[in-house]
Amino acid sequence: MRYDLNLLPVFLTLMEERSVTRAAERLGTTQPALSNALTRLRTLLQDPLFIRERYGMQPTARALALAPQIAQALAVLDGIVLGQQAFDPASADQLVTIAANSYMEFALMPAIVARLRAQAPGIRLRLVPFGTDLAETGVVSGTTAVVLGRIVDAPDSLVVQHLGDDGLACVVRADHPQVAGSKLTKKLYEQLRHVNVLPPGRLRAGLFQALERQGLQRDVAVSVTHFLAIPEMVAMTDYCTTLPRLICHRLAHDARLKVLPAPVDLGTFPLHMGWHVRYRDDPAHRWLRALVAQVAQELVGEQGPSGGALATAAARPSAPAPEAPRRRPRR
Q1: Residue bearing the bigger pLDDT, 79 or 164
Q2: End of a domain among 261, 282, 306?
Q3: CA atoms in the 13 A half-sphere facing the CB of 212
Q4: How many distinct structural domains can be found in the chain?
Q5: One domain, residues 176 and 157
């Protein structure tokens, strides 16, 4: 029996999005074309596959049973075909989708973009958000190349690599009347009012837990949803903020701000990269993963009080490092 292999990625994307409109957007096609593909899928697999309900489309029992089998079959096919292809980054011309949480987008992506511009100028990037749901990023179906952030309870179809660890530091305005020198005491930390960033996911919970472990109290004056809102707010007030060190070192380029060590040890948190298992042996994907891993290791390893690590890592066009051992993080 003849059938169109292009229908199988459509099926997996519909499984994740539960919406013809969103699936069409992710696959870069039109809604009528996606609806036509769904009709062909229903004929091919002899099942409705998805039932339209009030809040989206729900997969049938047969669709739920077929999804892992189809994902595994595509992984095998990709390994056979893509494993035979050579990859030349200098001549590559393709669009790559990366899902990143707000921390990774702010701290890591500028250096990754600069490295890609130097080594693979024909590669175009499309960034999509990563909050708490891996399925929404497209990485579980393989339509997104990699996901960057804190990954917990990854499915079996996802390979997770530990890129390094980051810690926490504090930022105040450079001429803050209460903060003299380069040290922030616990007493002063608790006396200051704070700007609190509320990114989605486990980064937020990690900071709250670290403060609670150390018995450190904060008087929160403002809560914001993104790191980009922090610099102006801190520069124009006497507020303090507690942020990941990589972000603090980015902010250290702003002469209006001063980065200080946290008054107590607030611990560290991991940086993860995840990708679908079917891309394990794809030469282009392996090259991209190695580049991301090298940039992350440089930024984490070269952190300094001036924040120069980011500028150094972004400018250095060295070859990607080999992949580190991989594991699936657990709680």
Answers
A1: 164
A2: 261
A3: 6
A4: 3
A5: no
pTM of the model: 0.69
- CA 225 remoteness from chain centre: 16
Angle at which helix 283-301 crosses helix 61-82, to 10 degrees, equals 90
In 217-292 the beta strands, taken as DSSP E runs, fall at 219-224, 240-244, 257-261, 269-276
Asked if the structure places residue 74 within a domain, the reply is yes
Within 13 Å and on the Cβ side, how many CA atoms surround 149?
29
CA distance 46 to 40: 10
Centroid of chain to Cα 141: 16
Which of 21, 55, 82 is the last residue in one of the domains? 82
pLDDT of 83 over the 70 cut: no
Q: Measure the N-to-C terminal CA separation of the chain; round to a whole number of Å.
A: 45
Long-range interactions of 17-23: CB distance < 8 A, separation 24+:
18/50, 18/56, 18/57, 18/58, 18/59, 19/56, 19/57, 20/57
The answer to whether residues 329 and 152 touch, using CB atoms and an 8 Å cutoff, is yes
Contact 274, 158 (CB under 8 A): yes
**pLDDT tens for each residue of 165-181:** 999 999 999 999 999 88
Give the model confidence (pLDDT) of 87-140 as tens digits. 889 999 989 999 999 899 999 999 999 999 999 999 999 999 898 788 788 888
- Residue 255 has what DSSP assignment? T
67-71, 207-211, 216-220, 312-316, range with greatest mean pLDDT = 216-220
What the block records as the tokens of 3 is 């059938």
User: What is the CB neighbour count within 10 angstroms for residue 139?
Assistant: 29
Name the residue range of residue 249's domain.
168-261
Looking at the fold, whether 43 and 98 belong to one and the same domain comes out as no
What would the pLDDT profile of 197-241 be if each residue is shown by its tens digit?
A: 886 555 556 677 788 888 888 999 999 988 889 999 999 999 999
- Please state, in angstroms and rounded to a whole number, the distance separating the CA atoms of residues 72 and 94: 24
DSSP annotation string for 113-169: HHHHHHH-TTEEEEEEE-SS-HHHHTTTTTSSSEEEE---S--TTEEEEEEEEE-EE
